[in-house]
Write a structure and sequence with these properties.
The complex is a heterodimer of chains A (about 900) and B (about 150). Chain A has about 900 residues and is α/β, with parallel strands linked by helices. Chain A folds into three domains: about 5-330, ABC transporter transmembrane region fold (Up-down Bundle); about 355-440 and about 805-889, Rossmann fold; about 540-770, no CATH class. Chain A has a six-stranded mixed beta sheet, with helices on both faces. In chain A, strands 2-1-4-5 form a four-stranded antiparallel beta sheet, with helices on one face. A two-stranded antiparallel ribbon of chain A has the order 7-8. In chain A, helix 3 packs across helix 5. With about 150 residues, chain B is α+β, with helices and mostly antiparallel strands. Chain B has a single domain (about 5-145), classed as Jelly Rolls, CATH 2.60.120.10. Chain B is about 40% helix and about 30% strand. Chain B has helices at about 5-10, 20-30, 85-90, 110-120, 120-145, and strands at about 30-35, 40-45, 50-55, 60-65, 70-75, 80, 95-100, 105-110. In chain B, the strands form two sheets. Chain B has a four-stranded antiparallel beta sheet. A four-stranded antiparallel beta sheet of chain B has the order 2-7-4-5, with no helix packed on it. Classes of the chains: A alpha/beta (about 900), B alpha+beta (about 150). The interface of A and B includes residues 561, 642 and 751 of A.
């Protein structure tokens, strides 16, 4: 990485910058002509002095034609000059963007090569703004890095030459104050630079602080420290304010000084120039300064101040950006970064790691003083299974990280067969060695993408595309390369099927299910699948099968005399196990507008109820519900859990409902206040007749609700059409989960163990239709959430393990993988994994020593050293370290 | 059956007879209604109990395991309460209860019951009275037997 911005520009854009200067140089003659022509117009066309314009256009041209010819020539050159500027601006802007893209890509690629321990020292909050925000002005600057000084400097020079040509003394007057400015301004700027450096640093710390608050948000709430955090951020903001304010003051002072000095110069022009013009007129000296020349000089001078200002602004910007660049780049060069080659070298396609894994005098120390691993020696055949045992802090974890090449040893070496581990490219270590830690990271995508992540090293097959798309791809790749980026298409098929030992996607998915079964995650996948939502258009076969399962389940329940477990959705019947609101909606809400919990807030609902003539009736029932609730719960202390569990009314709302009851006591429902109506309806909509047995939802109301249900559906306004997916016994409901589509009804209240029984019946039904596997496969589509937050810790570990196994590594290195699983599940997983990896190498850091008996070779660590190694039988004797670990459990 | 009918049902049980109807209503509202098929087991002997059952419709058998096999010692019918000892103290079920017909019962969960007692001490007093009466009855029976 180039240390200075100038070198970066020189190395990656020399040709373009030279081209910009060349184009800029081309524009100067044009600029000069646009200055010269007005003078000719004044002197030759208006003043009838002889000159070169007259000479070119011929003396026989009459004055008006001559004037117009000169004017149009002027117009033409103004246009040419403008076109040149436009071209240059676009070219320079594009160059700046390409260079910015290159810079950001280089920075990002460097992050991927940071040594892992470096991430303990730098935070996301610092690194991200460096790549994104701090580099932003650099791009804008690079495009103009050479063109502005070249163009504005050149323009300035042209104007100056023009002025000097008109009159030497006037020229001298124009530049008389430049030396003072050259001396003074950098001095003032130096202080601004220092402040700018501090501003960058403070902004970074602020960003880091905000990131930290987000990471520790639970602690902030749990300890009531939000005031402390706010005070801290306020102090940082205050510091930034002061720095920026200081910078502004100084910057504007420099501008002020510059402007003042620039305004001094016209004084010299009028004084000295005016003197010479008058002298020339009085002495009738034709070689003296003419009025036309003075006017042109004045015009040129007016133009002179603009490039001068631009140059000053450029100088300030350059200093600012230079500091930013240097401050960013120095953060991206930590000691011990991986070499560029290690990430990009390609091994032979069927490279296999063979031979024993040998550690010789292996040592690791984070700070150079305390050695967490010290002088470790062992040799493990790569077709055997080894367990590493030891308490926390025994050096077990560091040892395993070094074996996976995630930590660089500070002493000694690791050799696999004839290869030294630290010399192997990542293409070898990342494919032939798999590592799973205690908290494997899951990316915020689907289970499937996370599982296949370990198979995506290079784009394998381009995605299907028509000609236009292919051309677009080629254009993209060419552009990416011109900016020093990788031209690969992330949308291509990156999955290396061969690495997983399969031939296509369908086989890979089946293989994934096999491995998920090995890690005891098959049932989880089934549950995730059932909870998923599918679009029947995208997966018509699955939707059709689920519909079959719906019928099959119904038949099975009838056969086994268990039909009462579930009350199916029936268009013509009121469902006693659903809320009144759900009965009215008779469908699944796809967003908040028709959420059954808040149906009463939806104006359309009130309109339908009114039209169905149901409103008054429901309001009376709602009032009865409120009455009962108040009666039941009024004596209870507000904190009582009964409120939360059983009441429709929160404890603090009770007085409000008492007030509503009071207000509505002797009124007909039509005269209730709008707000009271809404609240009474909302209450009633929550009633589930079979569960609450309040007796308020009478047969008459049920019948009327059925009518209203019909009306609700037929009159649904177009803007609400996509807010609800209505229930239809013969159609797949795309807004409901797979499970709800199979059940297609409400689980009945008051049936002993209804949930458990139904789960069993659903499973049997799906198994019978051979659908369980499809459901599990569909579980692969489950989105795991940010860092896998929607999965449990055990599920995340199992998924991490499955991801590592899917790529068929020669060596599987596991550090506490599976320690979040319960004992029985962990035993099963260890057994399964070892069976699957028969004949391949496994090194497993175990947190429970009793599982060690299943391994061929044990390494017992204590205080960074291997204190015992051998088979379980050899070591399972009195007074061994293994025995101690075993008895500590 | 609506809430009011359930309250009537509870009032016929001596343990609840003297408790205010509004509290009984809360007890009824918060308790679950459960349907059982003929032959379904409500609970088994030896299990830890966590709820009492009030029979609303149907009949149930109380079965005790003896060395000679299961023995039906009592029949339960409408308005009977069973398993109430388990919600007052932590003892294993002393018998198995099995539905003898199609059965509906009101299930009073232990923690819910305790929460109500904490909230309304009057309930505790009434239940204490009922328990004392039972104890007295048992004592009398024992004295009569011994005499």
């Amino acid at each position: 990485m180039e240390r200075s911005l100038f070198r970066f520009i020189l190395r990656f854009s020399l040709r373009q910058q030279l081209f910009i200067i060349f184009m800029t140089a081309l524009s100067f003659p044009v600029t000069y002509v646009t200055l010269e022509l007005p003078k000719r117009i004044v002197n030759e066309a208006l003043g009838e002095k002889p000159g070169w314009a007259r000479g070119i256009l011929g003396s026989d041209m009459d004055r008006i034609t001559f004037l117009l010819a000169l004017c149009f020539a002027f117009l033409l050159f103004v246009l040419i000059s403008g076109a040149q500027k436009y071209y240059l601006n676009v070219y320079a802007g594009r160059l700046g963007e390409l260079m910015l893209r290159r810079l950001r890509f280089q920075l990002y690629a460097r992050i991927l090569r940071f040594p892992l321990p470096h991430f303990k020292k730098v935070s996301q909050g610092e690194i991200i703004p460096m790549v994104i925000a701090e580099t932003d002005p650099i791009g804008g600057y690079i495009g103009e890095a050479w063109s502005i000084p070249a163009y504005q400097g050149g323009t300035l020079l042209v104007y100056l030459i023009f002025i000097f040509v008109q009159d030497f003394w006037l020229g001298l007057a124009a530049v008389s104050l430049y030396p003072a400015q050259f001396w003074l301004i950098p001095k003032l700027q130096a202080k601004v630079n220092l402040l700018a450096k501090e501003r960058v640093r403070t902004a970074r710390q602020l960003s880091d602080k905000i990131g930290e608050s987000i990471s520790g948000i639970a602690e902030v709430h749990a300890h009531d420290t939000s005031r402390l955090e706010r005070a801290d951020v306020a102090r940082r903001l205050g510091r930034i304010y002061e720095i920026r304010y200081d910078i502004f003051k100084r910057k504007f002072f420099i501008k002020f000084l510059n402007n003042f000095l620039a305004q001094l110069t016209p004084f010299f022009f009028y004084a000295i120039g005016g003197y010479f013009v008058i002298r020339a007129v009085e002495t009738n000296d034709p070689s003296g300064l003419t009025l036309g020349a003075l006017v042109a000089v004045l015009a040129a001078y007016k133009d002179l101040s603009s490039p001068w200002k631009e140059l000053l602004a450029y100088y300030q910007q350059k200093e600012d950006v230079r500091i930013k660049y240097e401050q960013v780049v120095e953060q991206f060069d930590p000691p011990g970064a991986l070499g560029e080659k290690i990430q990009d070298e390609n091994p032979a396609p069927d490279f296999k790691l063979g031979g024993p894994l040998v550690a010789a005098n292996l040592t690791y120390s984070e700070d150079g003083r305390v050695k967490s691993v010290e002088g470790v020696n062992f040799s493990l055949p790569l077709d055997r299974h080894a367990a590493v045992l030891g308490t926390g802090g025994s050096g077990k974890e560091e040892l395993l990280l070094m074996l996976a090449r995630l930590l660089e040893p500070t002493g000694g070496s690791i050799q696999i067969g004839s290869h030294r581990l630290s010399h192997l490219p990542e293409a070898v270590t990342g494919r032939n060695i798999a590592f799973v830690g205690a908290s494997p990271y899951l990316f915020a995508t689907t289970v499937r993408d996370n599982l296949f992540y370990g198979l995506k090293h290079r784009p394998m097959r381009p995605r299907d595309a028509d000609d236009a798309a292919r051309r677009e791809r080629e254009r993209y790749a060419a552009l990416a390369e011109s900016a020093g980026n990788i031209p690969d298409d992330p949308g291509a098929d990156w999955i290396d099927y061969q690495a997983a030992g399969v031939s296509d996607l369908a086989a890979l998915e089946r293989r994934a299910l096999e491995i998920l079964t090995i890690v005891d995650m098959d049932d989880d996948m089934y549950q995730l699948g059932l909870r998923g939502v599918i679009d029947p258009k995208a997966k018509p076969e699955l939707a059709a099968e689920i519909l079959k399962a719906r019928t099959a389940l119904r038949e099975r329940l009838a056969r086994e005399d268990q039909a009462a477990l579930i009350e199916p959705f029936d268009e013509h019947r009121f469902n006693d196990n659903a809320t009144l609101g759900e009965n009215l909606l008779f469908g699944t809400a796809t967003d908040e507008r028709l959420n059954p919990e808040r149906l009463a807030d939806q104006p359309y609902v009130a309109r339908v109820l009114e039209k169905a003539g149901l409103l008054d009736e429901l309001l009376v029932a709602g009032r009865q519900t409120a009455e009962t609730m108040v009666e039941l719960f009024v004596g209870l202390a507000p904190g009582n859990q009964l409120f939360e569990q059983y009441s429709f009314i929160a404890a603090d709302e009770l007085p409000e409902y008492q007030a509503i009851l009071g207000r509505t006591a002797n009124l007909p429902p039509a005269e209730y206040r709008a707000e009271d109506r809404r609240r009474l309806l909302a209450l009633l909509f929550k009633v589930i007749p079979a569960r609450h047995r309040l007796g308020v939802v009478t047969a008459a109301i049920k019948n009327h609700v059925l009518e209203a249900r019909k009306l609700f559906r037929t009159e649904l306004p177009p803007e609400l059409k996509d807010a609800v997916e209505f229930f239809d016994a013969d159609a797949y409901n795309k807004a409901s989960t797979l499970l709800d589509n199979v059940l297609f009804g409400k689980v009945s209240f008051g049936q002993a163990q209804a949930q458990a029984k139904l789960a069993r019946f659903v499973r049997v039904t799906l198994d019978e239709l051979s659908l369980s596997e499809s459901v599990m496969l569909f579980g692969l589509d489950f989105s795991v959430g940010v860092a896998g937050a929607r999965l449990s810790a055990a599920q995340r570990q199992k998924l991490g393990l499955a991801r590592a196994m899917l790529k068929r590594p020669d060596a599987l290195i596991l550090a506490e993988a599976g320690n979040a699983l319960d004992g029985a599940s962990q035993a099963k997983v260890i057994q399964n994994v070892l069976k699957e990896f028969k004949g391949r190498g496994v090194v497993w850091g175990l947190s429970r020593a009793r599982f060690a008996s299943q391994f061929d070779h044990l390494l017992v660590m204590r205080a960074g050293r291997v204190v015992e190694q051998g088979t379980f039988e050899q070591l399972n004797r009195p007074d061994t370290a293994l025995k101690e670990l075993l008895s500590a459990e | 059956m609506s809430l009011n009918e359930e309250v009537e049902l509870l009032r016929n049980i001596p343990m609840f007879a003297n408790i205010e109807p509004s509290k009984l209503k809360l007890l009824a509202f918060t308790s679950e209604r459960m349907a059982f098929k003929d032959g379904d087991v409500l609970f088994r002997q030896g299990e830890q109990g966590d709820s009492a059952y009030v029979i609303i419709v149907g009949e149930a058998d109380v079965i005790v395991d003896t060395p000679k096999g299961p023995l039906t010692v009592a029949k339960l019918k409408r308005n009977d309460i069973v398993g109430e000892i388990a919600i007052l103290c932590d003892v294993p079920r002393t018998a198995t209860v099995k539905a003898a017909t199609k059965l509906e019962a009101m299930v009073i969960a232990k923690d819910l019951f305790f929460r109500l007692i904490m909230e309304f001490p009057q309930m505790a007093v009434e239940i204490m009275r009922e328990l004392a009466r039972r104890l007295d009855a048992t004592n009398r029976k024992l004295t009569a037997k011994n005499a």
